[in-house]
Write a sequence for this structure.
């Protein structure tokens, strides 16, 4: 027999329990027991709904978004179910011939809308650079650090970017990656 402290039940591991044989207070079991949470023990992804679940999306340079100056743009997105997630990402900007004076990238539950406040971690998944010197015909990457996103229902989470600058010719191209891991 195996018992768990403060939980009013016992069982024999590997045994079959017939209906009516278990008389346990499951409220106590959930709040008092040392529960094992299912994840994964190898180099794969945890099953949907379990701790460790990983969802990601990337937009390649070849499929990148043309970035109009001064406008906010979505690069890619993921759909996350209810729970707590840690999300991180990176936005790359290929600059053919423009000067870039301002560049910002973020992760948010609001499409193409820059966060404006620190409340609820709104600026946690945010990176901004001013007076940026970007060499033409090169890629410039902004990493976005990991931050908590807590959801009550299935929600689309966006990886977005905004830039300002000048010069003629073709607009920069934005592309990037977002990855989110379920932590609770």
């Amino acid at each position: 027999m195996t018992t768990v402290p403060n939980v009013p039940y016992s069982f024999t591991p590997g045994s079959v329990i017939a209906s009516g044989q278990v008389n346990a207070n499951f409220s106590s079991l959930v709040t008092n027991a040392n529960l094992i949470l299912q994840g994964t023990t190898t180099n794969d992804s945890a099953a949907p709904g379990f701790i460790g679940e990983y969802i990601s999306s990337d937009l390649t340079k070849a499929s990148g978004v043309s970035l109009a100056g001064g406008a906010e743009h979505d690069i890619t997105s993921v759909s996350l179910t209810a729970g707590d997630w840690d999300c991180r990402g990176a936005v790359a900007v290929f600059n053919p011939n423009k000067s870039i004076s301002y560049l910002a990238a973020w992760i948010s539950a609001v499409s193409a809308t820059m966060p404006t406040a620190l409340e609820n971690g709104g600026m946690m998944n945010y990176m901004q650079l001013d007076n940026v010197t970007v060499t033409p015909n090169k890629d410039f990457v902004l990493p976005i650090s990991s931050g908590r996103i807590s959801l009550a229902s299935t929600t689309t989470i966006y990886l977005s970017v905004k830039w300002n600058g000048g010069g003629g010719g073709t607009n920069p191209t934005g592309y990037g990656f977002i990855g989110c891991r379920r932590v609770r």
